[in-house]
Amino acid sequence: MPGRMVVIFGASYMLWIVFAASQAFKMETTPESRSLAQIGDSVSLTCSTTGSFPKDPEIHFSGPLEAGKPVIVKCLVPDVYPFDRLEIDLWKGDHHMKSQAFVEDVERKSLETKSVEVTFTPIIEDTGKALVCRARLHIDEIDSVPKERETTKELQVYISPQNTVISVNPSTRLQEGGSVTMTCSSEGLPAPQIFWSKKLDNENLQPLSDNATLTLIAMRMEYSGIYVCEGVNLIGKHRSEVELVVQEKPFTVEISPGPQIAAQIGDSVVLTCGVTDCEFPSFSWETQIDSPLRENVRSEGTKSTLTLSRVSFANERSYLCTVTCGHKKQKKGIHVKLYSFPSDPEIEMSGPLVNGSPVTVSCKVPNVYPFDRLEIELLKGETILENKNFSEGEDGQSLETKSLEMTFIPTTEDTGKVLVCRAKLHIDEMEFEPKQRQSTQTLYVNVAPRDITVLVSPSSILEEGSFVTMTCSSDGLPAPKILWSRKLNNGALQPLSENATLTLISTTMEDSGIYVCDGINQAGISRKEVELIIQVAPEDIKLTAFPSESVKEGDTVIISCTCGNVPETWIILKKKAETGDTVLKSIDGAYTIRKAQLEDAGVYECESKNEIGSKLKSLTLDVKGRENNRDYFSPELLVLYCVSSLIIPAIGMIIYFARKANMKGSYSLVEAQKSKV
C-alpha cells in the first residue's frame, strides 16, 4: 500500500505543478486531490485540461481589400499552450503565402496568442478566392487536445470610386427660364452611390439629390454656381464638379460680312454691326491699337456701320464693335485682310513672231499682294512651258508687279495656237473672287520676205520715149508690202510707189538709174535692185589730135574721141589701112602715140555706138620725118616696130571683148564689140 500511495501522490503532484504553471491553464482531477483507498483495491484517477488550443484562428485585415493597394493580413491563434509546439500556415487559394513555427523558451508556462502577418496587393481576380489560416499544435502524446484548427475567409476585392464624369444637357451656360439635366456616373466596386450637392459661398456643400440624374427647371440667376457629383462606396469616394452659369436673356450682336473679310486694296469696305432683342442699343467701334473710331461711323436704330474708304495697308487689322444694352455689353470683332489682284495678266513679246527667230515672251501680273502667294504659269495650248512661284525669299507689305519670262523659237506650226498666261493667288483662307486670272493670245508666226523677184518688160535697156513696166513680188507671212524707190547719187532712196508694178510711160534719159524694190512685213525686209538704162543714138562726136593733126617724128600725140549727148556709149578707135583696120587701145576714148613714127601717119576713125545706133568720124594724122636723121630706123627698131604693130591690135581686141562682157554679163568672141568707154 505505501508503494501505491507514492505513485498516486506523485501523479497528483505533477498535475498540480502543471496547474500552478499558468492561471489560464485549467485542470480537473477525479477524484479530488486527496482520496483514501484501501490497499489492494483498484483506484481510477482521471485528469482533464481545458484552454490549451481552445479556438480557431482569426483572420484580420489592416483595411478593406482595394485593388492595387497593399494590405496586411494577420492570422491570429489565441490562448495556445504549449506555444513552442505551434505552427501557422497562411494560404490564398492554392498559393502558400507564409508558414511560421514558434520556437520559444519552454520554461515559460502560460497561454499565449500567436499570429502571422503577410502584406500583399490584392487584384480584382482575387475576389472569390479563399484565404485560409491553418494552425497546428504538435502534441502527439496528448490525444484529447485538437491538433489542427483552421479558419477560411472568402476574399472580396473592392475598387474605390473613379472616373466620375458629369454630362450636361443642353449646356453649362443657360438662360433664365431654361432647364438643364446633369447626369453623373462613377466607376467602382461595389458600384458607387451618387450624391449631388452644390457649393455654397462658404465652401460648404448643400445636399441636393442621391440620384444619378439631377434636373433643374425654370432656371434663375441664383442657380448659377458649382455643382458637385460624388461617387461613394465602401472603399472611398470620388467627386467631379461642373459650373453652371445662368444668364439673363441676352441680346444678339451680329457683325457682317462676317468674322473676317477680304478687301482689295483701293476698294471701299463697309462693316455693319446689328443688334436684335435690344430696343435702344449704343454702339462704339475701335481697333486693337486705336482709340474709339468716330469718323466714318454711322449709327441708326439697331444698326451701326463703319466705312473704310480706299483701304490700304493701314487698314489690315481687327475692328471691334461694342454694343451696350442697359447694363450689359457685348462685343463682336471682324478682321480685315487685304489682297490685290486687280487685273488679268499682260502678255508682251520682245518683237513679232518670226519663224525660226528666238522671241522672249513676258507674262506680267500688275499690282499684286501678297505676292509671296503668287504663281504664274505660261502655257501653249495645254502644254505648260514655264511656271514660277514667288514664295521663296519674298516678303514685304507693298504692291508689286511680278513677271515670268521665257524665250522660245516659234515655227509656222505654232500659228493658230493659243498662248495662255495664268496667274494664281494662293490664299485659301480668304474668301474672294477671282483667285485665278488669265490672258490669252493667239499666235501668228510671221515669215520674213524672201525670194524677191523683179520682172522688167520689155527690157532694162530702152530707147528714149519707150514704155517700161517693172513688177516686183516677194514671198512671206504676212504677204509683204511692196515699196518702189529710186537710188539717188548720194545713196539716199527716193520713194516712188507702193504698188507691186511701177510703170514709166514715156522714158527719158533722166529716168536712167537704179530702181529698188523692197518687200516689207512685220518679220523683216528683202530688197532687189534693177538698173534701167534709157539711151539715144550717138551724136556730137568729136575726134581730135593733140597737139595737132600734123606732128613731127618722135613727138607724142593724143587722139581723143568723145560723144557729148550719150553717157553710155561704146567708143571704138581704129586706124584705117588698105590691108585692114587696126583697133587701137584707148583709155576713156583717148589713144596716146609716144614718139610718133612715119608709119603712125594715116586716117584714124572713131565709132560712137550704143544699142540704139552708131556714128563715125575720122581725121588724118600727118607725121613728118626729121631731115637730119634719115637713117633713124635701125634694123633692130624695124623688127620691134613690126612686132608692135601686131601686138597693139591684139590688145585692143582683148580690151574690147572684156568690155563687151562687162556690159552684157557674158564674154563671146563671136559677138564681141569694140572698147567701151
Walk me through this protein's architecture:
This protein folds into 7 domains: about 1-50, no CATH class; about 60-155, Immunoglobulins (Immunoglobulin-like, Sandwich), CATH 2.60.40; about 160-245, Immunoglobulin-like (Sandwich); about 250-340, Sandwich (Immunoglobulin-like), CATH 2.60.40; about 345-440, Immunoglobulins (Immunoglobulin-like, Sandwich), CATH 2.60.40.10; about 445-535, Sandwich (Immunoglobulin-like), CATH 2.60.40.10; about 540-665, Immunoglobulin-like, CATH 2.60.40. The protein is elongated. With about 675 residues, the chain is mainly β. The strands form 13 sheets. Strands 11-17-16-13-14 form a 5-stranded mixed beta sheet, with no helix packed on it. A 5-stranded mixed beta sheet has the order 34-40-39-36-37, with no helix packed on it. A 5-stranded mixed beta sheet has the order 42-48-47-44-45. The chain has 2 helices and 48 strands. Helices cover about 5% and strands about 50% of the residues.
